[in-house]
Amino acid sequence: MKHSEAATLFETARNKDAGKPIGNNTRLMKRGNDFAIRLHETDVVTIHENDTYTLKTDGWYTVTTKDRINRYSPAHVAQMNWLWYCNGVRFYEGMTLDKHGHVVLSDMSFDLQREILYPDVSSKYGAPMGRANEGEAPAKGIKLHTAHIWLEEGYDEGGAYWGTPNNLMARFTRDGEFIEYYRNEAIA
User: In 53-144, at which residue ranges do the beta strands (DSSP E only) sit?
Assistant: First the structure.
């Protein structure tokens, strides 16, 4: 659900303070300029004005929580070996996704992440096949970020062609000196 869709739906609420019922024990609530999908007493999805989404469970790792997150955000939350993964990244409380389902790193803007991972590669001769890994693996203690590389018909946002399935991941440093692309077989 996009922010504009949430705003339109919320306008139909009879009692705006109580929110708009949208499912069993689930209500659409207004939170300042944002909207929240509240399951019982937990805002499991917060939809921000810029169409980013913050996901929370408050410790309720239930089938219903997972359903509401998957239904009202661009997330695909799946469970493997008792652990939750969101679009191929280990789920963590308060994670934020952009409108395409990319994880927005808390200490890195999505624009910076995009600049590192998706430099434009289009040319008059067509798209290259994938992208080359860059740099040497950093020393211990250097933080590595992980991101799911979302593919649209096999192409990343910068125009490189990867094919299918949509399970491409990247590990990278904040400065972009090290980037490693790999397939996560846990997601199909």
Answer: 53-55, 77-80, 83-86, 89-90, 95-97, 103-104
